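Troubleshooting log. The previous structure file for this entry was overwritten by mistake, so regenerating from the original sequence record. Sequence copied from the archived sheet and checked twice against the printout by T.R.
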Amino acid sequence: MPELLILLILQWHVQRHVTKLRLEREMQLLLAVLERRVKLLRQARPLTHAQFSWVMENRWTLRGFSLGRLFDVFQLWPQVDSDFKREVKFLVNSAREGMSTPRVA
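Regenerated output below.
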């Protein structure tokens, strides 16, 4: 499975979790980085209709995974660029740290 398909599915699940858990502020940068990578990959090699259909049909594959588990599994996919994995891991850890500190009103 190409990196783009993996990222589209991941992006869809992350956005769903972030909205459900109301973590938009904490995960804003991570979502932007995912979006940037998806756009870059789409420009380099646009999705075919068959690939888009496959993503839409299979986006529910990871539906039972927590947000943390999604990121754990993401790190295991060999198709995803290792530098991008490190960037995502850093952003996830930063977001976790931000969630553990009290919010200032």
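The mean pLDDT is 86. Archived copy saved in two places this time.
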